[in-house]
Amino acid sequence: KRVPTAEGAIPVHVPQVRDTAEPFESRLLTFLTGHRDVLQRLVTEMYARGLSTRDIEEAFTDATGARLLTKSQVSELTETLWSDFEAFQTRDLRPFPVEYLFLDAVFEPMRRTGRTREGVLAAWGICRDGRRVLLHLALGNTESYENWLEFLRNLVKRGMRTPTTVTSDGAPGLIRAIEQVWPQSLRIRCWAHKARNVLDKVPDAARADVKAHLAQIREAATLADGQQAVQRFRDTFGARYPSALKSLEDDLEASLNHLRVPAAHRKYVRTTNLLERTFEEERRRTKVIPRFWTEHSALKLIFGTLDRASRRWQRLTISEIEIKHMDQLREELGLEMSVERKTEQTGEISSGVA
């Protein structure tokens, strides 16, 4: 019997035993199986971090040129990613008290359909304790209302609480699904997308001036200041660049909602940039594959790449004052309180009665 290990394939002779009800158990095979687990982890990490099955096959070649692993064996070893993905898709989300939710999609080429690309929908969040967590991935085909609605309902079904804010681009189906599932949450329009859309509608000579005015809106100290900055934009550019003004005013309330969260959090909630950067890392990995053969292979690799990238996301430091601001905003929106806040309110009522 040949046992693949991280050190190469090792031949092991297994004796045949007779006249005994007790089967033979090899301590050597048990030891080598542990080394096979090391091999599986090694191959899986190589695959998820950028090597194709052919690259891995060639990497596991001994001094004589003999292949220690075939492509089919590599595929078999990386199946642990699929089992990890299935567990990820069904895990309980109640341990993650999400305050700020972010939604986006990545599109990948697939051989199994006539479509050029199919979408993979993604959600991540910033929790009350500052953790950044990848929450869900699912095939979306198109960014339709129906696909996003099913995706968001999955988050609710798995116990995720209603988020304080939801940041997304301007896809109509996505916006409609957000407002259907979480009508009380503050919906935030991604400022990276918003700024690009506005700047695309002005001549190059005016871009710097328009960009500076957009920054005044985005960086306003308060919601009222942001609204005043919008009026200055209207007065300055409305007549010259009506298309740019129309783009700015499209979904304007959502474009200003980031000004209602604690000031230190605004740079995090006003864009989906973290997810965009993670998608860029995923695309560097998947570009070695011209086209996925199956949904299974696509989701397995995309999950492996995004999951590993998300492990490097830095935790936010959130102060007690910021937590109180977040709780106050949730109360204003009519959202359920955290356990800590409910306990605090109960204590305040008890003290008042006493």
TrEMBL record:
NCBIfam families: transpos_IS256. One of its GO terms (molecular function) is transposase activity. The lineage of its organism: Bacteria, Pseudomonadati, Verrucomicrobiota, Methylacidiphilae, Methylacidiphilales. One of its GO terms (biological process) is DNA transposition. Required for the transposition of the insertion element. The keyword Zinc does not apply. Belongs to the transposase mutator family. Keywords: DNA recombination, DNA-binding, Transposable element, Transposition. This is Mutator family transposase. InterPro entries: Transposase_mutator.
